[in-house]
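Protein folding task:
====================
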Amino acid sequence: MKRSIQLISACILALAAAAAGAVEPGDVVGRHIFGLATDYQGDPAQFEGRSRVFESVAVETRIEREAGDLRVSLFDADVGGLYLTDLDPGTGEALDTRPVDLAPAGGLSAPGMARIAPWGSVLIGETRPVDGRDPAGFAERFAPYFKGKVDMADPYHHGWPAELVLLETGDQRSKVIRDYAMGRVFAGDLAIMPDGRTVYMVDRGLTGHLYLFIADRADSLSAGTLYLVGREGGEVVHHLLGRGSALALRMQLRRVDFPAIFASAERDGGACPADFRPVDSVFGRECLRLEKRLARFAGLFEPQRFAAYRGYPAFAAGIDRLDHRADAGRLVIRAGEETVVEADLGAHPDFDSQFIIQGL
């Protein structure tokens, strides 16, 4: 993809009524109704027989391209939405808007994070965890996206970062793909390093986990290795969660369900049965046993449960924001407005990256 897409602001902007070219959900802009929820065939999604306009914009970011300015708008709901709006490069006035076809990504559930990558794509995080152990519950909530066909909704299609690729030629203006190799982490924020390969991720303060993904090649997140970054005895440690490619993991999706990853059992007198481990994660307290057949993928499909199963500690409670201070060579890790850690970044003998946390 051409590098003509240039970042105006890497900051994620909350919708402000006074912003130039601001539009509200329900406004007709050009040929479409801004914020109308759509299904996998591009029709208005039906909720109890009625269409729905999202209440508010969760996240917006503006980018500038040779082909024209764009605003990317995310709508955070069980059946989420993503809109692109063409802006006048001089006045910022909204000229036209349209929903992005999310069918290639299986739709979006609770998209609440967007970051612009160095190569011009927009990375999107689904920020509310979807429990793979409760496929029926998720299918009921997400069924409107598939015109009520609950058998088409699968919790394991969600949680992987999505990538909005903006195109400059052809009839198709954009496409959305899943970066499966990055893991099903439900990223609430992420920071992409200047090498285009190293990415740090956190969720919305639910687990305290700090994830590190190192892609196999620059400007592509289609294959790589995912780690959980921890602190033990004052030292920084890296726990391998898994490695793979988008193609291989998408193939695994065809045969994955929760029992294929973990066997579960009820507690007996407060204790887990033999061969089962007590696991306490964002999904609650459980008795689990890792199944051998898909063990090497468990840390990618179920990173929260897998970390708890292995006993990997959280990096820091409540962390939910990341910023890379390129001038200082540091990663700033925050919990809300509070800075928890400013970590120096540099080379490490065990990793092919110049952006590994050095010490705390």
Remarks:
- The two ends are 37 Å apart (CA to CA).
- Residues 1-20 have pLDDT under 50 and may be disordered.
